[in-house]
Write a structure and sequence with these properties.
The protein is about 35% helix and about 20% strand. By secondary structure, it is an alpha/beta fold. The protein has 2 domains: about 5-140 and about 210-275, 3-Layer(aba) Sandwich (Rossmann fold), CATH 3.40.50; about 145-200, no CATH class. It has an 8-stranded mixed β-sheet with strand order 1-2-4-3-5-6-9-10, sandwiched between helices. Strands 7-8 form a two-stranded antiparallel ribbon.
């Protein structure tokens, strides 16, 4: 069975260096063909989510929808080192991805923010006009909470090696001195650290004109969407945003070291993009 898309890898110009782009173009395309721009997650989660991204591309290109994935500066196959990356740079790179989609002829654009990528997508959406929608996969609502969880990896690794674990205050002292901090093989700069720390979905409540479609992956039917996520959704709705929320059952594919898939999320997202998702 042949692929329902043409795969075109290329490098595009970012504000700080060349960015690697993968363009999944439907075999049948018109001037109205929509495009989904993937805004990836952070560090190792980005790698763990890549195959889910490929599965989504296969599913939606079969429906005549394009997918564009661009590695932010300092990640993947893009130029730069991770320690040179900053949060503002990644927002700019997300906007550059949208600009590239426009040059490819896609005037109907949506962004899919995966985990921490949801915060990047929301920030970039404020710099874009006429965005069709934002789609979130298991979004990180608070960068500070996510950063604390990430730092626990560093602390746990130090304890495992019987080294001094360090504290957040000590890490921030290193950053203030112009140094990066190394966590799980990633050198995090102060520009990235403090950018993530200050990021929160509630910083973007002005996005009332852009529909948001929020997918939560739960391990079983007995599980519930985290209360903090519900509070953010309610706050956005109270502010006038159109937020639809759907839960799907599946594994935490962004956490697993082995390739782990959540086919229900692919099916639900493709159905939504085809106009079949019923709003709450």
């Amino acid at each position: 069975m042949s692929n329902p898309y043409k795969l075109d890898p290329s490098y595009i110009s970012g504000s700080k260096g060349a960015l690697f782009a993968l363009h999944y173009e439907p075999v049948t395309r018109t001037e109205q063909t929509p495009c989904v721009i993937v805004v990836p997650s952070f560090a190792e989660e980005m790698n763990r989510c890549r195959y889910m991204q490929t599965l989504l591309a296969q599913a939606i290109t079969a429906q005549g929808i394009a997918l564009l994935a661009v590695d932010p500066f300092g990640t993947g196959d893009s130029e730069g080192e991770f320690e040179q990356a900053s949060w503002e740079q990644w927002i700019d790179d997300t906007v550059s991805a949208c600009d590239f989609a426009t040059r490819l002829g896609y005037n109907q654009q949506s962004m899919l923010g995966i985990r921490l990528g949801a915060l990047l997508a929301a920030a970039a959406a404020e710099k874009r006009d006429h965005l069709q929608q934002l789609i979130f996969w298991q979004p990180v609502t608070s960068g500070k909470v996510a950063l604390n969880q990430f730092l626990r990896i560093k602390i746990a690794a130090s304890i495992g090696r019987e080294e001094e674990a360090g504290t957040t205050a000590q890490f921030e002292e290193q950053l203030a001195g112009g140094n990066s901090i190394e966590v799980a093989g990633y050198d995090v700069s102060s520009g990235l650290y403090y950018g993530i720390q200050s990021a929160h979905l509630n910083n973007h409540l002005s996005l009332t004109g852009t529909p948001i479609h929020w997918f939560t992956v739960l391990a079983s039917e007995e599980r519930k969407t985290p209360r903090g996520d519900i509070q953010v959704i309610e706050k956005w709705r109270e502010n006038g945003a159109q937020v639809s929320h759907q839960t799907v059952i599946g594994p935490a594919f962004w956490q697993a070291h082995e390739r782990t898939l959540a086919p229900g999320l692919i099916t639900a997202t493709a159905a939504h993009l085809a106009g079949e998702l019923n709003h709450e």
